[in-house]
Write a structure and sequence with these properties.
Blueprint: E1 6-7, E2 20-22, E3 29-30, E4 43-45, E5 52-53, E6 66-68, E7 75-76, E8 89-91, E9 98-99, E10 112-114, E11 121-122, E12 135-137, E13 144-145, E14 158-160, E15 167-168
Parallel strand pairs: 1-3, 2-4, 5-7, 6-8, 7-9, 10-12, 11-13, 12-14, 13-15
Length: 178
């Protein structure tokens, strides 16, 4: 209902039959692991009132195919979308300035992604195992690509690393056979 302002940590964790949810605009905070392992969840509308997607919020929502993050969001937490196997597309708004480690780890259907200009580092394992990822646009604001950032991105055909990057971690592109 519209009277709800927060969805607490673990609120809907393991709700295996939950297929869709509409969160009202009155909600200003969604907690860690809030929808973790909702394996039937195919659709979710995140309200514009949300400014942060927390740790593992949608971890293992393996039926989720696409999601649009509202323009008010400025950070995506660690493992936020990890193991969302059917996630094909995601639009990250320009206001996002941090994406946590492993945020898209195991999103093996994700084909492309645009990293916003405000991002300064690509954290550890951010795109680990994104097997369908064919291209990635790294903005000039990025200075660090951490270890295993793109490991096992088997379909990645091209990547432009800007001159602003001063450090690339171990195995950042390991297993990028294409």
């Amino acid at each position: 209902p519209d009277s709800i302002t927060r969805i607490e940590d673990y609120a809907f964790e393991d709700c295996l039959a939950l297929t869709a949810i509409k969160i009202p605009d009155s909600v200003t905070s969604i907690g860690n692991y809030a929808f973790c392992s909702c394996t039937a969840l195919t659709s979710i509308k995140i309200p514009n009132s949300i400014t942060s997607i927390k740790k593992s919020t949608f971890f293992e929502c393996s039926a989720l195919t696409s999601i649009e993050i509202p323009n008010g969001v400025t950070s995506i937490g660690p493992m936020a979308f990890s193991n969302c196997h059917k996630l094909i597309s995601i639009k990250i708004p320009d206001r996002v300035t941090s994406i946590g480690y492993g945020a898209f780890d195991g999103c093996c259907s994700l084909t492309s992604i645009r990293i916003p200009e405000g991002i300064t580092r690509i954290d550890m394992s951010t795109f680990f195992g994104c097997k369908a990822l064919t291209s990635i646009e790294i903005p000039d604001s990025v200075t660090i690509i951490e270890e295993r950032a793109f490991t096992l991105c088997e379909s990645l055909k091209s990547i432009h690393i800007p001159d602003s990057v001063t450090s690339i971690g171990d195995e950042a592109f390991f297993g990028c056979d294409s």
